Amino acid sequence: MKKTSIILFLIFTLAINLSSQQREIEFEEYDLENGLHVILHQDDSTPIVAVSVFYHVGSKNEQADRTGFAHFFEHLMFEGTKNIPTGEYHKIVSSNGGANNATTDFDRTYYYEILPSNQLALGLWLESERMLHLKIDSTGVETQRKVVKEERKQRLDNRPYGSLLEETFKRAYLKHPYNWTPIGSTQYIDMATIDEFNDFYKHFYVPNNAVLTISGDIDIDEAKELIEQYFADIPKGTEEIKYPNITEPAKTEEVRDTVYDNVQLPMVLMSYPIPSKTNSESYAIDMLTTLLSGGQSARIYKQLVDKEQKAVFAGSVPLALEDSGQFIVYAISNMGVDGMDLEKSLQAEIDKVKSELIPDREFQKLQNQIESRITNSNSTVAGLAGALPSYYVFYGGTDLINQELEKYLSVTREDIKNVANKYLESNGRVVLYYLPKSEEKL
Amino acid sequence: MKKIMFILFLVIAFSITAQVDRSKMPDAGPAPEINIGDYESFELDNGLKVFVVENNKLPRVVFSLILHREPIMENENIGYISIAGQLLRTGTTTRPKDQLDEEVDYIGGTLSTSSTSVYAYSLKKHSEKILELMADVVLNPAFNKDELDKLKKQTISGIKAGEDEPGAIAANVRKALLYGKDHPYGEIQTVETTESVSLDMCKDYYNTYFHPNIAYMAVVGDITKDEAEELVTKYFSKWEKKDVPKPEYKEVKKPLVRKVAMVDRDNSVQSTISITYPIDLKVYTDEAIKARVMNYLLGGGASGELFQVLREEKGYTYGAYSSTNADRLIGNFTASCDARNEVTDSAVAAFIDVMTKFKSEKVSEEKLQAAKNYLTGSFSRSLESPQTVANFALNIARYNLPKDYYKTYLQKLNAVTADEVQGLAKKYVKPDKAHVLVVGKAGEVAGSLKRFSTSGKVDYYDIYGNKYDPSVSKIPAGVTVETVTDNYINAIGGKENIEKVKDKVSVIKGAVQGMEMKITISQKAPNKLFQELDAGMMKQSTIFDGTKGKQIAMGKEVQLEGNDLLETKLEATMNLFLDYKKHGITAELVGMDKVNGNDAYKVVLTLPNNNTWTQLYDVNSRLLVKQLSTKQAPQGTFTVAIEFDDYREVEGVKYPYKFSQTVGPQSMEMEVESIVVNSGLDDSMFEVK
Question: What is the ipTM of this complex?
Answer without folding.
Answer: 0.88
